[in-house]
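Project outcomes to date are best conveyed with an example. Our students and postdoctoral researchers have been running inverse folding experiments weekly, and each run begins with a structure described purely in tokens. The record below, which covers 305 residues, was selected by the lab manager from last quarter's runs and is presented without edits.
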């Protein structure tokens, strides 16, 4: 967690002034120097051990899904740590933390590393990994230094990256049904996010992003149909859990790994009773039945660059 913040109230300013402040922030952030590598990249020793392991075992020869899962398996046991993306009060930057992962950064780091070792099997550096993180995490694949250039909703990540040819979303083709939500997640819980606490004039623009994401076509596979869908999934498919909470679409994300009895869910779990770390869990269909909050799944299938 980021720690406790006071529950500030948004200053009542005309919307035009808020918009102008937001535009000013974009310009300042874009012109700002990058954050130092000591801030944006944690766990270099683990990174270089993984690079060496990938070279010795020739991971780059594996298909993208198997390669991503292989990286994920190497990260099993990594402690769960929330809010690892919130690394500065003002400047947004691609980042990696091998010392602690949340559900989002687990899938993202595994995928970025898998893409990196295919493109650069020898001599990979932390900055190479940050490049592939940027490609996945930011709208259009570009971090401008502005917090709002980051995609904060998986539904937008899946849509934007599929549009750019970096992935496909087979959910609808595998029997997915439409779902619609009016997203308010980031603006209603703004006090939980370091950047928004320190830059509250970004909230109107964040609300506009929420409206755009709410308008995207989203399909999901209901929980009752997931067991029958497992045979169509592939190792390394990214799976987002659709939540009953109507302020957003999804509450958790991980990847699936094929085992003799079905597709098992590998994820960074915040649950202390299930490890509070990166784990290879039960079948995805079984995992969904742990909570009535789990309504179903969205499947996202990344590609090599």
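After processing, the design step wrote out the following sequence:
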């Amino acid at each position: 967690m980021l720690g406790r913040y006071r529950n500030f109230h948004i200053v009542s300013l005309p919307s035009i002034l808020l918009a102008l402040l937001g535009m000013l922030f974009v310009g300042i952030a874009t012109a700002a120097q990058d954050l130092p590598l000591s801030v944006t990249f944690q766990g270099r020793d683990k990174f270089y051990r993984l690079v060496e392991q990938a070279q010795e075992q020739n991971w780059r020869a594996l298909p993208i899904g198997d390669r991503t899962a292989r990286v994920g398996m190497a990260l099993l046991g990594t402690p769960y740590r929330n809010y690892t993306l919130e690394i500065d009060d003002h400047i947004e930057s691609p980042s990696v933390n091998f010392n602690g992962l949340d559900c989002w950064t687990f899938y993202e780091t595994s995928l970025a590393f898998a893409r990196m070792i295919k493109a650069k099997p020898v001599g990979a550096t932390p900055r190479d990994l940050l490049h592939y993180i940027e490609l996945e995490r930011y709208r259009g694949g570009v971090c401008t230094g502005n917090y709002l250039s980051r995609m904060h909703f998986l539904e937008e990540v899946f849509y934007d990256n599929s549009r750019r040819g970096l992935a496909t979303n087979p959910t609808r083709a595998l029997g997915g049904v439409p779902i619609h939500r009016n997203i308010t997640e980031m603006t209603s819980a703004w006090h939980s996010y370091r950047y928004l606490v320190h830059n509250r004039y970004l909230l109107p623009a964040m609300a506009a992003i929420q409206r755009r994401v709410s308008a995207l076509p989203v399909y999901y596979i209901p929980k009752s149909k997931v067991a029958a869908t497992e045979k169509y999934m592939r190792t390394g498919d990214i799976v987002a859990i659709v939540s009953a909470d109507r302020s957003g679409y999804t509450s958790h994300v991980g990847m699936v790994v094929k085992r003799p009895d079905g597709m098992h869910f590998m994820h960074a779990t915040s649950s202390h009773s299930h490890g509070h770390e990166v784990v290879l869990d039960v079948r995805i269909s079984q995992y969904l039945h742990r909570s009535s909050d789990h309504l179903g799944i969205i499947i996202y299938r990344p590609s090599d660059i």
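Residues 1-23, 25-32 have pLDDT under 50 and may be disordered. The CA atoms of residues 141 and 172 lie 25 Å apart. The training component of this project remains on track.
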